[in-house]
From TrEMBL:
Residues 12-114 form the SnoaL-like domain. Pfam families: SnoaL_2. SUPFAM superfamilies: NTF2-like. InterPro entries: NTF2-like_dom_sf, SnoaL-like. It comes from Stutzerimonas azotifigens. It comes from the Bacteria. This is Nuclear transport factor 2 family protein.
Length: 132
């Protein structure tokens, strides 16, 4: 397996563990000094914090994975994952089609950076945008 495909596999395995959710397993795909930035510029120290944050924002949430794009940057590989989120808000109402884009940097077999963007904040501010 070449360098780029292994980076996509690492990100894919991380996302699968994250959606279980199994933050302990998800952490095995990340460098101990990973930098995670969520929507709104929120810094997350580890996958456990991501799980806790999502637990407050959603009753539950999963990703419908779209495609993975990657590029070699010399000393690391950048992997983009896009798709949609689906699940339930804390009030029990369901949602789907919530776009997300995640950007990862993979170096030496570990995720060293993760940046997350999605439509959730906009949908919470203006519920009419949530069109399942």
């Amino acid at each position: 397996m070449n360098h780029e495909n292994s980076a996509v596999e690492i990100v894919s395995n991380f996302l699968a563990a994250s959606m279980t959710p199994d933050p302990v397993k998800a952490a095995t795909f990340m460098s101990p000094d990973v930098r995670i930035t969520f929507t709104g510029g929120r810094l997350m120290p580890d996958p456990q914090t991501i799980t806790a944050f999502n637990g407050g924002r959603y009753a539950w949430v999963k990703k419908q994975l779209g495609q993975f794009d990657w590029m070699d940057r010399g000393d690391h590989t950048v992997v983009y994952s896009n798709g949609t989120l689906y699940g339930e808000w804390p009030d029990g109402s369901s949602f789907s089609g919530n776009r997300y884009m995640d950007r990862f940097e993979v170096r030496d077999g570990k995720i060293v950076r993760m940046d997350v963007w999605n439509d959730s904040a906009e949908w919470l501010l203006e519920p009419a945008l949530n069109r399942p």
